[in-house]
User: Fold Malonyl-CoA/methylmalonyl-CoA synthetase from Amycolatopsis endophytica.
Amino acid sequence: MPERMFPALAAPPEKEALRFGEVSLDYAELGAIAGSLARELRSQSPTRVAVWATPTIHTSVAVVAALLAGVPAVPVNPKIGERELDHIVNDSAPSLVLSEPGARLPERLASLPRQQVALVGSPGDLPEEPGDEAPALIVYTSGTTGPPKGVVLPRRAISTTLDALEDAWQWTADDVLVHALPLFHVHGLILGILGPLRRGGTVHHAGKFSTDVIARELSTEATMMFGVPTMYHRIAEEVGGNPELAEALGKARLLVSGSAALPVHDHERIRTATGQRVVERYGMSETLMNTSVRADGERKPGTVGVPLRGVEARLVDESGAVIEVSDGETVGEIHVRGPNLFTEYLNRPDATAEVLVSGWFRTGDMATRDADGYYRIVGRKATDLIKSGGYKIGAGEIENALLEHPGVSEAAVTGEPDPDLGERIVAWIVPSGEPPAGQELADHVARLLSPHKRPRVVRFLEALPRNDMGKVMKRALDA
Assistant:
């Protein structure tokens, strides 16, 4: 019989499983409700189900029920635009939609059969679950280079990733996780909801992020927090003058940041105020988690740690040769392989073949590796590797240097064509107060790094364009 995704639902412990605000379910209740819905889904034999992924307990129940039933689920961002929604529905062809009761669905989804997720159910045997290679979730990429692609994640990718994180983070059933992440993405849904449930632990979803809620949770029951850099930036801005927040964060067993690089400046402000070093990890929709700083390992700010158990990683240069040196300086593209990888891009064999080569996934992310095997992401191959004056320069290193200047609140770095240098370095700055002079910022970077890494152009903005996960949309800057 295949392994169960959530063993605690088959033998429920007497403890809380999910809490969203004032609404909570213990393991027996979750097993009864999700089990009832799973049996109903089995009787309907849908090919796939779309999940209207609001940040609610209903979304969590819907996804758990689909996994119990062995029906692939397609989480849909509730803020999605019409064109993108049309593409996702046409591409994934769901048989029905799961949503919280009373949710207003856009016309494209409202035209499909709908199952409202009520928080009622009766105990019964849970369905036998399918094998490891069966598709579990289809998560759509952000579509920065064309229409979003449907990443088909098999059950083994989810289970092996969550079990590798159990090892890396010493994650146990005693942990209580707090977060406020969206539930249509790998970070918030797979790590933030399915992770605690696989461990037999507890998750408290805060709804909307606020430092007050985080402080309250970590000062009472919560032992872990997951967040994205925009959240940790708000914490870093506030924690030095907020003793209650600093004390609560200091009590946490683990603070984890992901989905984008956390600036070293924010790392240090949080450490100074709390004594805690935030753990960073590295993953993608196609690979789930690849590397992480270990809970019992050295925490090096700005690195994403070492490969997780079962994951192989390597750096490859532009010629396709594997980079053997681990000097912390040589930049290469990260390739990974292991049981954490996706199966395919739905209906896109061409795109799948382009990124999966001899079992290795070409991530498009550029990084260095130090003597201890720690990886440091310097940016995306397409947008963050700048070739200037014969040098290959990672945008992330310059961004971290700019953030050390007191006049810089936020920074993004891109390259643009230059007739002499090939590409010139452009800094996009959100100032903290009166904007500093561009030459002052260029000199600051040259002093901290080296002259060839200084920005040649500085542009000031009121805010950087970001997506729902807090990543800076650099193509929007270039446009």
